[in-house]
Design goal:
The chain contains 16 helices and 26 strands. The strands form five sheets. Strands 7, 18, 19, 20, 21, 22, 23, 24, 25 and 26 form a ten-stranded antiparallel beta sheet that branches. The protein has a seven-stranded antiparallel beta sheet with strand order 4-10-11-12-17-14-15. A five-stranded mixed beta sheet has the order 3-8-9-13-16. Helix 1 packs across helix 3 (about 95-110), helix 2 (about 70-80) crosses helix 4 and helix 3 (about 95-110) runs parallel beside helix 16. The chain is globular, with a radius of gyration of 25 Å. The termini are far apart. It binds zinc ion (ZN).
Length: about 675
């Protein structure tokens, strides 16, 4: 994007850049638009963005300043020497604070709310005071250093969250800089990145081993893109190179073998997806073909064999690596919160950490930018609407760590994490700040820029005002009630009269869509899972209309998924539906419900906690037999019928907390 570029030393000021600033990345087909370029104006994402600005963000900001609950801000104050005390809270507390900060910066980009700017400046000043002279920031270590209690071992903890914290600082600083034009946080981030560069120059492979949720791969490359210091690209390359070079690597950390040998998704799903997103960023800068080949192979493994219908990732709470090299049970590798074997997709015990699902968005977003292929935008959309939004309550202030596809009160064991959303998840509140920043940033995903024009990625009423790659301005008003219906209108408010293309995404789930320009049909043979290119000389007042029928689809899984064999899931457009047990007779388990092909679904306006959406009303069959704790009995073919309303999966657990299922017997 050719926006104003002011060179300040080696720092390039480019305020019009997006979350990922790939304007100068040599190996990417698409580029992001600026953070402030899209304003939601109405409908689904406007409602979610308003909830973000009015509830979620203020709630999280206050929570992370409330030291009786989170200690995150207080840790910085102690590290800065302003207050006496010990580090408290999880070791990834700093990183989670930076994620909320990033969300605040992203919101500021479109709202220009001065209060946010002031709050961010106060936090930056404090973080700066905590920073060590060599650039290092990580409050668990800084606090112990300050009080002289830091043990030798602490510095060698390469599987702690130190780099995760630093990575989120870098990303937050880049977003803050792009949103505000201020360099105060970016200067701190430069110190951190320089520190990491020097550290990895000297570190042994053992000490350099770094694998826990590696947000710093994305962070370091974003710093490279912002500051243009070639050292940072060298650092990012080294970070990928050193993976898998030590004898103690694991599949859980994706470092048992070098990344360039990895063809399948393995191990902890947050770590995995952050790694893949970071490698995609690296590819965009270096064009190393091997990296893209690995990413494409891993993507196929995830999307065709290991991902839930909701876009969620990480089937297993705990397991053993399917890829480990030994049959010796004493050396077999444990994995946790991880991808399982192909087609191993349990529902009630699905881990599906919200952060892994967000990682799936980050990764697919980068793949879309690199390739321009709509299949990646489909996964971004699927995951956002389903397994990211399920991570937050409809009221905007409670969060899920796990996102199971089935909740049964009859399971005779407790899972480690409950299925109820919480305001603060004591041990693992990582997901809440992650959802907070993600929901602040979805507008940046709505469009991309290509060599020949504009790509429309996501649908939702908004106003776009951006600069194309040819330097010309374009303004578009998008109007739609998506995802509840598939009528989308793009009105062109400003455009140059050169010939250019507008690429309209035809979702992979769609069929029978039509596209017209100024009421004249352009195509009624739209190919799902592609961008349809409309190339012409445009003028102000032109309008594009996309009509996608929103039929209810009964989905089945590959029969190799044992857990869902002979079951169906209900989907309409990008929204996966679920059934909750609140209307079922008391003795009936959600798992004794079945559904027929012949059943009709009526769309019904439904409201939960003042949030309106389309429910799907239909008849289900159910059995009200009890099992009395036995394992097998002769099958009964009797059933009764009941009218129920399916609700979007992201709405589950907001009223009753009884039972829920996405998959039903068929
Ligand atoms: Zn998380």
């Amino acid at each position: 994007m050719l926006v104003f570029l002011l060179t300040l030393g080696n720092l390039v000021t480019a305020q019009n850049m997006g979350l990922v600033d790939n304007a100068n990345s040599p190996y990417t087909k698409l580029q992001t638009i600026g953070l402030a370029d899209v304003q939601w104006t109405d409908g689904f994402w406007k409602e979610q963005f308003d909830l973000e600005t009015q509830v979620t963000l203020p709630y999280m900001w206050q929570l992370y300043h409330n030291d009786s609950i989170t200690h995150a801000y207080l840790n910085f104050e102690i590290a800065a020497g302003l207050v006496k005390g010990k580090h408290e809270g999880p070791s990834f507390h700093d990183g989670d604070f930076y994620k909320i900060f990033e969300g605040m910066a992203a919101v500021y980009a479109t709202t220009k709310d001065k209060k946010l700017l002031k709050e961010m400046d106060e936090a930056i000043e404090l973080i700066g005071k905590a920073q060590r002279i060599d650039g290092y920031i990580n409050t668990p270590v800084l606090i112990e250093e300050r009080w002289g209690t830091l043990g030798e071992e602490e510095l060698k903890k390469q599987l702690g969250f130190e780099k995760y914290n630093m990575g989120h600082l870098m990303t937050a600083a880049c977003v803050h800089y792009r949103a505000t034009g201020q360099t105060n946080f970016l200067e701190i981030a430069k110190g951190v990145t320089n520190y990491l560069y020097d550290f990895y120059k000297q570190a042994s492979p053992e000490l350099a081993r770094n694998a826990i949720c590696p947000s710093h791969y994305m962070g370091v490359i974003e710093m490279y893109r912002t500051v243009k210091d070639p050292k940072y690209l060298e650092l990012a390359n080294n970070l990928i190179d050193i993976r898998g070079t030590t004898a103690d690597g694991t599949d859980d950390n994706q470092d048992r073998i070098p990344f360039r040998q990895q063809k399948t998704a393995m191990g902890h799903a947050v770590r995995a997806n952050y790694l893949y997103a970071g490698v995609a960023d690296l590819y965009a800068e270096t064009g190393e073909h091997q990296l893209l080949e690995n990413l494409e192979s891993i993507w196929e493994d995830v999307v065709y064999r290991k991902m839930y219908i909701t876009g969620a990732c990480g089937a297993l709470y705990d397991g053993v690596s399917p890829d480990g090299t030994s049959y010796d049970p004493t050396v077999v590798q444990k994995i946790h919160q991880a991808y399982g074997r192909p087609y191993q997709l349990p529902n009630a015990t699905a881990h599906n950490e919200t952060c892994a699902n967000i990682g799936n968005v980050l990764w697919n977003w980068r793949m879309l930018q690199i390739t321009g292929e709509a299949k990646y935008a489909d996964i971004v959309e699927l995951t956002l609407y389903n397994s990211v939004l399920s991570g937050i309550s409809l009221d905007g202030d409670e969060f899920c760590y796990n996102n199971p596809l089935n909740v049964s009160k009859h399971l005779p064991f407790d899972q480690r994490w409950g299925s109820k959303r919480e305001g603060y998840i004591t041990l693992s509140n990582c997901c809440a700040p992650n959802v907070t920043r993600t929901l602040a940033e979805i507008n940046n995903y709505a469009y991309s820029l290509g060599k020949n024009g504009l790509y429309v990625n996501l649908y939702g009423s908004n106003h776009l005002s951006t600069t194309l790659q040819n330097g010309k301005r374009i303004e578009i008003t998008q109007s739609t009630n998506y995802p509840w219906d598939g009528n989308i209108t793009l009105n062109i408010d400003k455009i140059s009269n050169d010939e250019m293309s507008i690429y309209v995404r035809i979702p992979s789930w769609s069929s029978g869509g039509t596209l017209s320009v100024n009421k004249t049909t352009v195509s009624d043979q739209l190919l799902p899972g592609t961008y349809f290119e409309i190339k012409r000389k445009w003028k102000k007042g032109d309008s594009i209309e996309l009509n996608i029928p929103m039929e209810v689809a009964l989905m089945e899984s590959n029969p190799l998924v044992e857990e869902t064999r002979n079951q169906i899931a209900v989907k309409r457009g990008p929204i996966v539906y679920c059934l909750e047990s609140d209307k079922l007779p008391e003795n009936t388990s959600i798992n004794q419900v079945s559904i027929d092909k012949a059943l009709n679904f009526e769309t019904v306006k439904t409201t939960i906690n003042s949030r309106e959406f389309l429910g799907l009303e239909t008849l289900i069959n159910f059995k009200d037999t009890t099992w009395n704790g036995i394992l097998y009995k002769p099958k009964s073919f009797e059933s009764k019928q009941l009218k129920v309303v399916f609700v979007p999966y992201y709405c589950w657990g907001n009223r009753s907390l009884d039972e829920m299922t996405v998959w039903l017997n068929y």
